[in-house]
Specification:
The complex is a heterodimer.
Chain A lengths: L2 H7 L14 H6 L4 H24 L9 H23 L1 H7 L10 H11 L4 H31 L1 E2 L2 E2 L14 H21 L4
Antiparallel strand pairs in A: 1-2
Helix pairs in contact in A: 1-7, 3-4, 3-6, 3-7, 4-5, 4-6, 6-7
Chain B lengths: L1 H12 L10 H6 L4 H30 L8 H23 L1 H7 L3 H4 L3 H12 L4 H29 L11 H16 L6
Classes of the chains: A mainly alpha, B mainly alpha.
């Protein structure tokens, strides 16, 4: 399969959040605003990219029986790097994402790709897959964040876009709004999949 | 009194699944039947309390004195995954019936972010060992309540005529949202 195909499958066909239902905890937890959703997407993409490089290079060295602990340690290393870097340079975003940054370690998206793809494919296709999955994850989180931010606060990326007469639906800024918003996005994705005949 | 506040806070006000969004994957994955969700809850409770004790001891006696705070994530996840492995092995020998009941759920717990999340929250909140244990029990009970409520609703939903586009995960999310609204009602309790 070509590199472009590996990359693009992460965005629609194997969309990690909306079709594979992976990484739902951060998808619900940090999408109060579009900025936070995008920041989380970028953090996860960085970890995916680094993990894909290291794991696919080491794939013949790691013994099969202890591969999952090995993957977890590799992933945890990069998560710690992201955690500390973000704390130093983007302290506001770091505070907003809070506990979900260390929890990237147990994000089933990353461990799932490590197990299913990086440990079985050469470096270049693994990188393409990691970037595609990361882009798809970031896209889903940014869209959900944007929907919740527009409906819940009337802003997008912190910029006011709705007319003054618009009364924000406070519920979309709270936890129930995350579940309901994602529920409608999943239904929307089902509609798109059906139109594109993906199944 | 303080301990009661932590316990009920973790069960109702900051419910791990419905308010903190931790442990969503098993929440969706095993909440199709009440029976399996009870099994999952039991396994999570067990590992949760053990993990709370061990991670607290590691933080207090190894990471903190040696100034290795930045290794927290790596250390905790290793502890949790070996703990799950250990529990699985011991249980198979000592309590085979319990093992058969919980068996399939145990490996899934390593990647349950509720466990690692609980361990990190204990440290961030500065809980002592007793408070950490109470917090972990509250977290586990809260997880169990959310899981069993959703399983009960989903068993009924299977028989309902939901729109094709909303079938499965989409309608489960919306239902979870409505249950979460109910839990918002507990906000003013403490």
């Amino acid at each position: 399969m070509s590199m472009a195909k590996e990359f693009s499958k992460g965005i629609i066909k194997d969309q990690p959040v909306l079709r594979l239902l992976l990484g739902l905890c951060p998808a619900l937890g940090v999408t109060g605003t579009a900025t936070n959703g995008f920041g989380m997407g970028m953090a996860a993409t960085f970890v995916l990219l680094c993990a894909s490089i290291v794991i696919s290079l080491l794939r013949s060295v790691i013994p099969k029986s202890v591969r999952v602990p090995c993957f977890i340690v590799i992933i945890a290393t990069f998560v710690t790097i992201v955690d500390m870097t973000m704390n130093a340079f983007l302290p506001e975003l770091h505070d907003a994402l809070g506990i979900f940054i260390p929890l990237i370690v147990v994000n089933c998206l990353i461990l799932g790709r490590a197990e299913a793809f990086f440990s079985r494919n050469p470096l270049h296709t693994s990188i393409a897959d990691a970037l595609g999955m990361g882009a798809g994850f970031a896209l889903a989180l940014t869209i959900l964040g944007a929907i919740r931010e527009i409906l819940g606060a009337g802003t997008i990326f912190g910029v006011v876009i709705t007319p003054e007469a618009f009364e924000p639906f406070g519920v979309f800024a709270t936890p129930p709004g995350a579940f309901i918003g994602l529920g409608f996005m999943l239904a929307g994705m089902n509609y798109i999949s059906k139109k594109l005949k993906l199944d | 009194m303080e301990l009661l506040a932590i316990l009920f806070g973790a069960i109702f006000i900051n419910n791990f699944v419905l308010t903190r969004f931790l442990g969503i994957c098993p929440f969706l994955g095993v909440s199709k039947k009440v029976e399996t969700s009870v099994g999952m809850s039991a396994a999570v409770t067990f590992v949760m309390v053990m993990a709370a004790i061990i991670t607290w001891l590691i933080q207090e006696y190894i990471l903190f004195p040696l100034d290795l705070g930045y290794l927290r994530t790596v250390a905790f996840i290793l502890v949790i995954s070996s703990l799950v492995q250990f529990v699985e092995t011991v249980m198979r020998k000592v309590a085979p019936t319990l093992y058969e009941g919980l068996g399939i759920f145990l490996p899934l717990i390593t990647t349950n972010c509720a466990i690692l999340g609980m361990a990190i929250l204990n440290i961030d909140e500065g809980y002592n060992i007793l408070e950490s244990i109470v917090h972990s029990i509250g977290a586990a009970v809260g997880f169990a309540i959310a899981l069993i409520i959703l399983a009960g609703i989903r068993e009924r939903l299977e028989l309902e005529d939901t729109h094709k586009l909303y079938h499965g995960a989409a309608v489960a999310m919306i239902v979870a949202g409505i249950v979460s609204v109910a839990f918002q009602g507990f906000q003013g309790m403490i």
